[in-house]
Amino acid sequence: MSIDFKALYPKLINLLLDTVFVVDEFGHIVFVSDACEQLLGYSANEMIDTRILNYIHPDDLDRTLVAIGNVMSGQSHTDFENRYLHKDGSVVQILWSARWSEQDRLRIAVARNVTALRQADQTRNALYRISEAAHAAETLRALCDGVREVIGELFPESDLCLGFYDAAGSLLSVPDWIAGRSGSWIEKPVESGTAIADVINAGQALLASRDPARQGVGLNDLTQPEGANWLGVPLISRDAVLGVLVIESPSPGTRYREADQALLQFVATQLATVVERKRAEERLRFMAHHDALTGLTNRSLFYDRLETALRSANRNEGRLALLYLDVDDFKRINDTGGHEAGDQLLVEIARRLEDCTRETDTVARMGGDEFTVLLTDVHGRDSVETAVAKVYELTALPMNLEGQTFHISCSIGTALYPEDGMTARELLSKADANMYLGKRHAH
């Protein structure tokens, strides 16, 4: 039986899963197999006689033109990859095999959709990068900075909002990336009726519309998800919402779809696990260097900071001061109001000491009712006396403890570097001695 291969060829070509394109020397499509509809959403009739360049992603146009020139000069291409735009607006990653027929003056190419493969590569790379960031980052904020880089690669045309949720205050803590202040955070209320609130409250991903007036918040009035330019997914660990990961695009042409949601959800799942671990590490690190009752620097960390400050003052010929403080008649307060009142008193003293010192100073609880304050960059005894007067003033204000009002007083001793000592031991000993000397004079 004879076979008409010429009649059979088009049927065979249209059975291929990959798409066959034939393009003339002017860039017009003269033939395309039926697989084009699965690839780009257009039927063969819609594409024939149109320019192939019309379908290329604008960012890939220049290098595609270079590749076309190479093919038409006789170089075959078997591994060229670029992005095309689907009829529905999505991006399709295509791997090409192409050659030029000089006799027919036609460019013949086979296109394979590798979008899913590249997304799998991106997902695997994202997981690896987040793992890298988790190991390299010493703090939760450093981890956020690493995640920002990963999201920037996965969604280069999108802005990122990453926030951690405080259910008690209905607040989100967001890294301050706009101001560019290293390590700083911004607290924002979670406003009901917004897309970001819906994600947190429902604990589910959401495609929505971007709010042009407020970054990251989103509008929850989207009726057609295919028009979404805002995508939020929750960070969930042990059935609790830790925060939210949001991408949004200011570009009117960007539309997020279920594939983007699945990819961001995967990143969020990995991130939530790492965040939970980082928080636990930070809690342990904080507990190791801070007083459990007041949250102040503890004795160990205070000594480290004092030694560091002394080295800096020595190098720069600077001055610093040390205040040593304890509460007068603390035992009486414990006996009168109970240990709960005593603990409340110590916490209140800690807050008042923090309120009357600068961020560059260090307030520490040394144990019991004894506190120290390290004042850096002081200008002499007059400035130290001013600081001491402020401490006396604040600590003398009445305190309501366990329903009772207490009036307390403190004894404070001071030591100034370098006049009263050159080492941490000398300064602490001098301040401690001055405190007890003042206490004896008061009585």
From TrEMBL:
What Gene Ontology molecular function terms does this protein carry?
A: diguanylate cyclase activity
Q: Which residues form the PAS domain?
A: 5-75
Q: Which SMART domains match?
A: GAF (SM00065), GGDEF (SM00267), PAS (SM00091)
Q: Which InterPro entries match?
A: DGC-Regulatory_Protein, GAF, GAF-like_dom_sf, GGDEF_dom, Nucleotide_cyclase, PAS, PAS-like_dom_sf, PAS_fold_3
**Annotated EC:** 2.7.7.65
Q: Name one Pfam family in it.
A: GGDEF
* Keywords, sorted A to Z: Nucleotidyltransferase, Transferase
Q: Which Gene3D superfamilies match?
A: 3.30.450.40, 3.30.70.270, PAS domain
Q: Which residues form the GGDEF domain?
A: 318-443
The name under which this protein is listed is Diguanylate cyclase
> What is the originating organism of this protein?
Marinobacter metalliresistant
Ranked from the top, the taxonomy reads:
Bacteria, Pseudomonadati, Pseudomonadota, Gammaproteobacteria, Pseudomonadales
